[in-house]
# Entry
Amino acid sequence: MSKKADIQNPGTQWYVYIIQASDGCLYTGVTTDVERRFNEHGSPIKGARFFRGRRPVEVVYIEKHPDRSSAQRRESVIKKLSRKLKLELIGGRIAD
# Structure
């Protein structure tokens, strides 16, 4: 979604999400529609490069944010966390 779309729809809800991949790795991203983005990650055209050679299995974490900027700042923080801390954030839903 472009910045122009944010201006036109100031009430757009943004989400930071974590997806568990088929090899157990965790992927963090931002979107306005988690279900749509999860499905896109399974596509070789719209999916993130991370999912080449692995497939998305399950969305294991979602956080709501009021705008794209705050969602991207939070995504950056989460991406810098160790796997152990990400698992704690998720709440231990994934066995290590």
